[in-house]
């Protein structure tokens, strides 16, 4: 048994025994291996560290009641990393290779998947970086695809609670930039706005559409959704939002399981009054209810600063029930791995 206090887990780096590593050179990927070494040995000329030629994914493995392990919509992560790769001129990773890497890492570190009922999960971080001797501004000639994992605690210890957000004066992404792909550069530019928001005691900032600054885009590392007073699930639509797999899952569940009208549409700051609930959603954030949003001199409260709204609660129960194997999943959403001890 591994020596981890599951109750005390947060979201921080923990070195687990094995990670997957594969190298791309001369037009092809090698077989890939599991390795104990958690240091990457790369050229000082690597385009990833000079020009940000890198992209990543984030997904979780969930311990079920019967001890088996679920992956949630891993095929969608496999597709999305390739959308990111194409945008930054990196070689694609065959979907089967990506999924195989994730499975191998989960199985090799299965003792680190937190127990059912602890609220914890095994967080997986696939990463694609441009490496090799280089210095001019052009795509790398060699690439590393790696995937490592670590156990993480529940996002909210002691239950879901609403938190407050502030609208940022900065943009996260350009209108036709890289907002829709999962690249580190978007995050580097969000560090300052995020830290300013946290200094003022907000959970994080909310970014507006970079073209007109009148509509909510997203929350930096999570997408935004709102429930209107007339029971519509609305999540912003924009070419500079990162297409969250959690968001698309909630769009489906809101419609098919909760019977709401579920749409992607504009969420104008001037029309926040139409919403009775709001939240942020993503793999890490799961569903984080939004208490209120500060913008200019206004503080807009949705449902309550203390309590979670009923629709948000239902969506949370449905989503996490599916992920942990307690609620029947839509076709193809779950990959179940059993462990042979
Ligand atoms: C990864 C990410 C999300 C959440 O996407 P999921 O697929 O739901 O985990 C949202 N916004 C940004 C900017 C992201 O990078």
Automatic annotation (TrEMBL):
Assigned keywords, A-Z: Amino-acid biosynthesis, Aminotransferase, Branched-chain amino acid biosynthesis, Pyridoxal phosphate, Transferase
InterPro entries: Aminotrans_IV (IPR001544), Aminotrans_IV_CS (IPR018300), Aminotransferase-like (IPR036038), B_amino_transII (IPR005786), BCAT-like_C (IPR043132), BCAT-like_N (IPR043131), BCAT_family (IPR033939)
Pathway note: Amino-acid biosynthesis; L-isoleucine biosynthesis; L-isoleucine from 2-oxobutanoate: step 4/4; Amino-acid biosynthesis; L-leucine biosynthesis; L-leucine from 3-methyl-2-oxobutanoate: step 4/4; Amino-acid biosynthesis; L-valine biosynthesis; L-valine from pyruvate: step 4/4
Residues with the N6-(pyridoxal phosphate)lysine modification: 182
GO molecular function terms noted in the UniProt entry: branched-chain-amino-acid transaminase activity
Chemical reaction(s) catalysed: L-leucine + 2-oxoglutarate = 4-methyl-2-oxopentanoate + L-glutamate; L-valine + 2-oxoglutarate = 3-methyl-2-oxobutanoate + L-glutamate; L-isoleucine + 2-oxoglutarate = (S)-3-methyl-2-oxopentanoate + L-glutamate
Name of the protein this chain belongs to: Branched-chain-amino-acid aminotransferase
Source species of the chain: Vagococcus fluvialis
KW Acyltransferase (keyword) present: no
First-tier enzyme category under EC: transferase
EC number annotated for this UniProt entry: 2.6.1.42
Similarity section: Belongs to the class-IV pyridoxal-phosphate-dependent aminotransferase family.
GO biological process annotation, one example: L-valine biosynthetic process
Cofactor(s) listed in the protein's UniProt record: pyridoxal 5'-phosphate
Residue stretches in coiled coil: none
């Amino acid at each position: 048994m591994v020596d981890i206090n599951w109750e005390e887990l947060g979201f921080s780096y923990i070195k687990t025994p094995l990670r997957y590593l594969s190298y791309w050179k001369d037009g092809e990927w090698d077989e890939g291996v599991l390795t104990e070494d958690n240091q990457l040995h790369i050229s000082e000329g690597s385009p990833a560290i000079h020009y940000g030629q890198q992209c990543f994914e984030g997904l979780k493995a969930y311990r079920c009641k019967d001890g088996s392990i679920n992956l949630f919509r891993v095929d969608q992560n496999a597709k999305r990393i390739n959308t990111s790769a194409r945008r930054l001129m990196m070689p694609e990773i065959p979907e089967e290779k990506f999924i195989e890497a994730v499975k191998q890492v989960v199985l090799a570190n299965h003792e680190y998947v937190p127990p059912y009922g602890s609220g914890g999960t095994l967080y997986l971080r696939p990463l694609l970086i441009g490496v090799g001797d280089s210095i001019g501004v052009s795509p790398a000639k060699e690439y590393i695809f790696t995937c490592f994992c670590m156990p993480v605690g529940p996002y909210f210890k002691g239950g879901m609670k609403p938190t407050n957000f502030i609208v940022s004066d900065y943009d996260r992404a350009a209108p036709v930039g890289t907002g829709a792909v999962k690249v580190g550069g978007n995050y580097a530019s969000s560090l300052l706005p995020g830290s300013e928001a946290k200094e003022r005691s907000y959970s994080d900032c909310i970014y507006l559409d970079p073209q007109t600054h009148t509509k909510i885009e997203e929350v930096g590392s999570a997408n935004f959704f709102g429930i209107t007073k007339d029971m519509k699930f609305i999540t912003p639509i924009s070419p500079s939002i990162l297409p969250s797999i959690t968001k698309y899952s909630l769009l489906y569940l809101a419609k098919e399981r909760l019977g709401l009208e579920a749409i992607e549409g504009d969420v104008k700051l001037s029309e926040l009054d139409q919403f009775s609930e709001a939240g942020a959603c993503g793999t890490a954030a799961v569903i984080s209810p939004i208490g209120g949003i500060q913008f200019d001199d206004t503080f807009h409260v949705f449902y309550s600063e203390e309590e979670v709204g009923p629709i948000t609660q239902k969506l949370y129960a449905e989503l996490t029930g599916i992920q942990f194997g307690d609620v029947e999943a839509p076709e193809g959403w779950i990959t179940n791995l059993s462990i042979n001890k």
